[in-house]
Amino acid sequence: MCLAMVSHRQAPRLVPALCLLLVPVLALLPATAATAQEKKVSLVFTGELLSQIATDNQGEQTAEIIDRIIGLSPTVINVRLQRAGGRVSLLLTAGADELLVSFQFTIDKMVYYRMRTARADITGVTEALQEAKAAEPLLREVGYRYDGRYSMIDLTLDLRPAIKTAREMQARRDVEERVAAAAKAGAAVRAKATAVKPSAPPPEEKPRPVLQETIPPPPASQAMYLSARGVVRQTAPVVDGQPSEAAWQSAPPLSFEVLGASGKMTVTAAALWSPDRLWMLVRWPDKTRDDVHRPWVWSKGEKVYVAGREVEDALSLSFAREGRMGDCMLAGNESSMDLWTWRAGRTDPSGFAEDATLTLSFQKIARANSYKARNGRSVWVKEEPDAGSPPYQARIVGAFAGDRIPRYISRTPSGSMADVAANGSWRDGFWTVEFSRRLSTGDPADAAFAPGREIIFSVAVFNSREGVDHSTSKELTLKLE
In 198-313, where do the E strands start and end? Predict the structure, then answer.
């Protein structure tokens, strides 16, 4: 199967031991405060869940186990599960105020069975859990408790390496921004000096594609161009998923095909821009409106909530920042893409899209998956969210509150996660989604748009699917008129 892009949070992530995933922000935790040094993460298990972990040797229940761990454990954001040599590794990402910290928790699977059969043996189980500290230096303490219903493992993390690394990353970003600002100022001075010369004007130069210095653009006969029409602020569209505004009626559309696991279909796109913003509209056929994602369903037998089977529709736009992806991730190229993902169930209620960076590299990347490209080389694929909080959060459930309740709660994103506005509507068998973002955010992780420039992008459609089960377009080129 040819992969185009990875659906955020649903794609498996390999988080090796001794590795730390950080999302830096402008305001870091104060290093002198006691709470900034440590973070407690609690893993919550029901008896049924412990049995599944201990007995599922083939990994057939992995997805269900992961969903249950995330749903029961309030501080856990993402989980990956691995089994080897009778041991079970939980590769966890937990929120620590303004940081995301990833770490590994590995114990013998029989310890889970022991927690299931001898829950009240606090001292014995605690001693059995201590081996996890030897494999993960971020773990300071590992404890166990049982409240009569749930078995809980308490993990205390040392956040000092996280704080140090986040500050270093932010410092590098600050330097990059200052260098970019100085280069822009220098270019303006040179342009002004050239403009005042009385000599004959230089020969007209065609706009250069933004990626020309890395990989040449495709031949004109192969390139598919989406031309963005300029608008003034008074006629700019509202980001509501409705293409009825006059500005959209005058925008030249581009139709193209997407192919893949979500089916073959024709997609239509249009684009508009003003001196400070870009708008994109994408429309594609879908017989059903799927805007619910993995709801919590009450299990009458176990008296707990489990994840439902429903999966939302979604759409991703990826813009080339460095290099070119090609027609899919397995084309055998190295690139860095600015990835915008709208989701019918999780992001649409907030009016925003997820903003992330998709990286393809021939060099091994920490916390990334490796795939075999068409040219026989291994390409490492990593999707990393931009700084800030996403436009939704998982809902923590406990006591019965209804047979089916939403699993995710909409919220206003923060930081760079709030860069891309997005809203969709479904009508008469079609989804229509609008995106909008400033032409330049000043964030090195984001693609920059400008008049006279061209930028390569591609589209991926998720038809009630997630992960790699999507359909993708070939490379397209966006031009701002």
Answer: 225-230, 254-260, 265-273, 277-285, 296-299, 304-307
